[in-house]
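Apologies for my clumsy wording, but could you write out the amino acids of a protein and the tokens describing how it folds?
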Amino acid sequence: MSDLDRPAKCMKPMENDVERFDKAFPELVNDLMKESDFQDLKIREAVIRVKEVLEYNVPGGKRNRGLSVIGSLRHIISEDKITEEQINIAMLLGWCVEWFQAFFLMADDIMDQSLMRRGKTCWYKKPEVGYKAINDCIMIEQTVFILLKKHIRHQSYYIDIVELFHEIAYLTSLGQSLDLTTTPGKNFENFTLDRYKVIVKYKTAFYSFYLPVALAMYMAGITDKETHENAKAILLEMGEFFQVQDDFLDAFGDPIVMGKVGTDIEENKCTWLVVKALERINSQQMDIIKENYGINSVQASSKIKDLYHTLNLKQVFHEYEEQSYQRILDLISKKSSQLPKAIFLEFVKKIYKRNK
């Protein structure tokens, strides 16, 4: 029996965390609306818009990132020692992560000209919104810091957490920049595995995996660099694994299950699939890629997907998935001595062989 197959230590409160987490969202939105700065009638129209933007864009996801804050905290602080205040703050921080996720996705949808997100029209594509969504992204990000100031300013870890959110926002923006500016080159020489790994690390892994766990660690008083670096090594590896899955699902996943239509091929993205294809193609197949990759048409996209099938990239992906899974388990075994392994195994369970 592998570590992943072993039942986690029974923590009954976890069963109620999802319900409690979901209940906290409208409470936090309403709490935000009561802030003194939001009571000025001269800006009431803009304040109402903040509420609309939050309610449309923040809920509706899997909430894995947000729930990972309270999940990680429960593994670090035993059930008999965790306080009601700590649980409430973990719920707040979890929603702050989801807030961040929402503004990253809103901005990403605009830059990628996406149509659907989480099974509904992208916010910027709504006729009454358009590019006003750019400012809406900024508003969502800034409300995170209003909530942090209001609720945890008195805590010893307040500065650590505020700095962490700022750092993660900056690192993610660097990854997004690399993603947007990485072009194939005349012979697709720029689409390398090394380049891909850098994009993934900064665009996805830091905010999706390290951020929730680091928040729980700071809450529990864990501030030493070595423990954070060890956790980061494990979590960034998971982040790469997660993004490779995303790339695979973009081409081969069910849009109904995923809640969006994959557009990586049309958008000329440096993905794991195209990198692996470039490692295996002959000169004729290279011509297919040059003629069809990055072309915004169903026919061109289908030719690239047919090539992926010809190169047996589904099997290549499944082999990668198993190898990556074992590599992550090895990292957990070697680098989690100062933290409960269950923190990391819970993440692995959520992402291993996922279909959306």
Remarks:
- The first helix runs from residue 13 to 33.
